[in-house]
Inverse folding.
């Protein structure tokens, strides 16, 4: 394959009976994989969780070698060479934007990979400029601080860093799972432009098929490793594969285009008592600073916010990144002190604890307002799933009988003895919702509950919340997910970038 | 820590030259407790403020813990050290005499004079440039230097993460109220949560760096660390300040060798 004018020679991938067992595991993550990818091909890798998609990507990037007693079988070659012996032939982008940035200045970060490949310094800067241009970040100076970039911009920066290495193989491991819809398109389009220009081979792993479907020319579906069946379940052009395997993929939780999982419909949308209300609220994550005897309030992320939280009704907070959505929700939940304005709990909610949720003790808070954070791991406080669920009820002294029901309802029963940190992404999400609900709060606040979730977890969560709403719980959620807010119904509060909010009625389901 | 917007003269000097100059000053001041050498060095350091783009306000914002520590150290030396000369203040076991006051003042000034060069260095030096100079000019192993640099970036994220974990745990019913023992346990739990997140982040960052070819023996440098005439002046400046401080103290007869 001749190299293109961009100086890239597309790489070929070939796997023959390849398998990998991680150190300390009994089962193989990938077993008996036979796969050929021609130079310049663009492949979307699908499959249920546990099918070894990430493991394969890491292996192709040559970063799997570090484990001591891991076990490899068969062969996996990039251009006929083992990946760990051909540094720089493949570039890998992972999910968490924060850890895709290495250095603190934009230009330096893009140059990092090229430096490691010992590219002559004169060539590096030419490559850096070209790469920054290609990913659409040319508006920033080279010394722009990388910490000041948004999630989508950080992922495009990572792509630029990869491009500057001139790899023949680009590997993307759920590159857009942590991004808002605008960020998703930004990254997808940048990847498309760069592939058109360089002709490099692409392998991408992603749940949301519709994002990548038009960009790839082949879909490979993997299945969890077993000794009797091959690792590749289906392989072919996108439309054919999606047609053949639509049912199977949907059942495995893949977001097939045009597929919205069935969810439980809301029974009624009539509201009940007023539980919480925010009046002319200004919010910020920062605390007031003291200078001498004066107290300087922080600059609010958003101000002039008023909202009512009513029993049995959903309030959905939407808006672009940086509009202060999460900050507002956390203030409403009694976790942050308002910069100005007031959050007050209605009599039905406060129940003798005073009307300022921020002043409630932690135990008073959890039986009234439950908050589910974006990252489930932030909320784990014990080392066992059952203890995690019993934690709230034990501290409150009541409600242990609800745990059994939650375990059952959120399909966690078989995991009671597991360590919460070892669960899969979907299991962690379900557990974090269950732990908060175990304390039976009247208001449930959720920060981006559907980010990065597969379709099955999504549907379970949406159905479960719709049931809670009908049962009289108020649900406040920060989300970019329109289908999710449609299931919950209620009121949508759209925040603009640090300006006044606008209200609209979300479609009642 | 970033130099964004600072265009002072010494931002252009090589970090290693600045590092050596700072080291010379610090070394000399560590050799003697006396107020003359310390104030001579301190005066010279204040004169450098415009050259590194530092103001008194910025100094207080960045270095207040050091300044407070120096003041506290001086005060406790003054009241606790053996008395000599006329007694100025006597409250029970605490007494301040001319001799102990002089020692305390010397201690405080020395503390400031030693801490200030480090603040000056970091005010006009980008950590990335310092890492470049340490790896290219001082020939420290690049894996170690760049690894440390990348890890430092994560430290900034940890402060944010600490706040988030604190809120997330309050939402689970782990409060910061209660007896000191309960508070200690809550803090330990929060620290464990932070540790887990730090390890996760660090291992993902390590994969990112390895996937970008980090860790090989050969490496080129996009930003070549170079010396210029300015660096000669920086070294000379460091030498003059440290020698000046010693000579001033010897001339005034206050040189007081600590070892």
């Amino acid at each position: 394959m001749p190299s293109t004018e961009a100086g890239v020679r597309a790489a070929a991938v070939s796997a023959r009976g390849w398998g990998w067992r991680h150190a300390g595991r009994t089962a193989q993550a990938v077993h008996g994989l036979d796969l050929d990818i021609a130079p310049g091909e663009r492949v979307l890798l699908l499959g249920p969780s546990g099918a070894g998609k990430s493991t394969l990507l890491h292996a192709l990037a040559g970063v799997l070698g570090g484990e001591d007693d891991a076990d490899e079988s068969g062969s996996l070659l990039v251009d006929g060479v083992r990946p760990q012996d051909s540094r720089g032939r493949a570039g890998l982008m992972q999910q968490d934007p924060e850890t895709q940035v290495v250095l603190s200045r934009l230009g330096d970060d893009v140059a990092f990979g090229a430096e490691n490949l010992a590219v002559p310094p004169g060539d590096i800067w030419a490559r850096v400029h070209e790469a920054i241009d290609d990913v659409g970040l040319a508006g920033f100076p080279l010394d722009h601080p990388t910490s000041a970039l948004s999630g989508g911009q950080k992922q495009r920066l990572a792509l630029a860093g990869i491009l500057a290495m001139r790899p023949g193989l680009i590997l993307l491991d759920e590159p857009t799972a942590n991004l808002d819809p605008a960020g998703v398109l930004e990254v997808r389009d940048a990847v498309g432009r760069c592939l058109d220009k360089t002709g490099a081979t692409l392998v991408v792993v992603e749940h949301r098929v519709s994002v990548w479907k038009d960009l790839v020319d082949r879909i490979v579906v993997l299945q969890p490793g077993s000794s009797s069946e091959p690792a590749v379940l289906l392989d072919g052009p996108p439309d054919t594969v999606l047609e053949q395997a639509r049912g199977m993929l949907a059942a495995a939780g893949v977001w097939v285009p045009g597929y919205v999982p069935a969810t439980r419909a809301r029974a009624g949308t009539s509201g009940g008592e007023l539980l919480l209300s925010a009046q002319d609220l200004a919010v910020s994550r920062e605390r007031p600073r003291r200078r001498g005897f004066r107290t300087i309030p922080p600059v609010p992320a958003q101000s002039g916010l008023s909202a009512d939280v009513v029993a049995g009704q959903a309030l959905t907070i939407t808006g672009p990144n940086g509009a202060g959505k999460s900050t507002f929700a956390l203030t409403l939940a009694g976790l942050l002190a308002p910069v100005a304005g007031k959050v007050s709990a209605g009599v039905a909610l406060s129940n003798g604890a005073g009307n300022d949720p921020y002043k409630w003790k932690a135990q008073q808070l959890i039986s009234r307002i439950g908050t589910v954070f974006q990252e489930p791991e932030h909320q784990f406080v014990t080392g066992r799933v059952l203890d995690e669920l019993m934690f709230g009820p034990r501290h409150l002294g009541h409600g242990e009988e609800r745990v059994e029901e939650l375990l059952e309802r959120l399909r966690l029963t078989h995991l009671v003895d597991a360590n919460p940190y070892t669960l899969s992404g979907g299991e962690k999400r379900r557990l974090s919702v269950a732990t908060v609900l175990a304390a039976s709060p009247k208001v449930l606040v959720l920060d981006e509950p559907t980010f990065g979730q597969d379709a099955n977890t999504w549907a379970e969560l949406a159905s479960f919340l719709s049931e809670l709403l009908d049962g009289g719980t108020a649900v406040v959620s920060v989300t970019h997910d329109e289908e999710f807010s449609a299931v919950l119904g209620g009121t949508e509060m759209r925040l603009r970038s640090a300006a006044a909010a606008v209200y609209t009625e979300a479609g009642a389901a | 820590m970033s130099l964004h917007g600072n265009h002072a003269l010494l931002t252009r000097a090589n970090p290693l030259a600045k590092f050596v100059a700072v080291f010379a000053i610090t070394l000399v001041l560590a050799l003697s407790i006396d107020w003359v050498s310390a104030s001579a060095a301190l005066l010279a350091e204040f004169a450098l403020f415009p050259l590194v783009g530092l103001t008194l306000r910025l100094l207080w914002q960045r270095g207040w813990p050091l300044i407070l520590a120096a003041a506290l150290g001086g005060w406790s030396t003054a009241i606790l050290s053996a008395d000599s000369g006329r007694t100025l203040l006597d409250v029970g076991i605490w007494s301040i005499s001319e001799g102990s006051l002089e020692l305390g003042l010397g201690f405080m000034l020395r503390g400031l004079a030693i801490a200030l060069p480090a603040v000056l260095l970091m005010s006009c030096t980008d950590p990335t440039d310092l890492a470049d100079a340490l790896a290219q000019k001082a020939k420290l192993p690049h894996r170690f230097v760049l690894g440390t640099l990348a890890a430092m970036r994560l430290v900034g994220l940890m402060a944010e993460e600490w706040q988030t974990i604190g809120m997330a745990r309050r939402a689970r019913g782990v409060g910061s109220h209660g007896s000191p023992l309960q508070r200690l346990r809550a803090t330990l739990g929060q620290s464990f949560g932070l540790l887990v997140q730090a390890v996760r982040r660090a291992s993902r960052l390590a994969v990112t760096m390895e996937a970008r070819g980090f860790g090989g023996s050969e490496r080129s440098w996009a930003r070549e660390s170079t010396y210029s005439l300015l660096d000669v002046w920086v070294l000379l400046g460091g030498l003059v300040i440290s020698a000046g401080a010693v000579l001033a103290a010897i001339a005034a007869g206050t040189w007081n060798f600590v070892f």
In short: The two ends of chain A are 54 Å apart (CA to CA). Chain A touches chain B through 69 residues (CB under 8 Å). Chain A has 15 helices and 20 strands.
